Amino acid sequence: MDAEVLKKLARYCAYQERCVWEVQVKLESLSVSENEQSDYFLWLEDNNYLNQERFAKLFVRSKFNQKSWGRNKIKFELKRLQVSDSLIHLALKELHELPYDSVLKKLIFDKFEQQKENNSWLKKQKCFQYALRKGFEADIVSSFIQELPTE
């Protein structure tokens, strides 16, 4: 293993939590052959620079807290980053500790208040679509939409 590559990888992983796919892309950009990549992955895991479970849990918490993403969008993004289904399932349990419903309710009510539309049905429809785009489940969104005032 090349010491310079190890140094770059360590810095890359120490800067922020990374998934295996991101590190693999980084290794390819550093022109590391596929045969040598497994040695680098082992070194990163042994030295606690790379941990898929830690990455997935942090990803769930940060995307929910910072961007108000729902389960569906978080799950989709984790799959895009090639995180295993079992880790995704484990990481999504982090949402049980977070104020999921209250964040969704605030998101919907704030969006409803921002609408300049006069028709309350259209306002509700826009709020519903907005919450779905944020990755929240349709049944939960629907229950909060019903709580919105009808004008």
UniProtKB/TrEMBL annotation:
Residues 104-145 form the RecX third three-helical domain. GO terms for cellular component: cytoplasm. The keyword Cytoplasm applies. Residues 52-92 form the RecX second three-helical domain. It is found in: Cytoplasm. It holds the Pfam family RecX_HTH3. One of its GO terms (biological process) is regulation of DNA repair. Its main location: cytoplasm. Keywords: Cytoplasm. Belongs to the RecX family. This is Regulatory protein RecX. It comes from Aquirufa rosea.
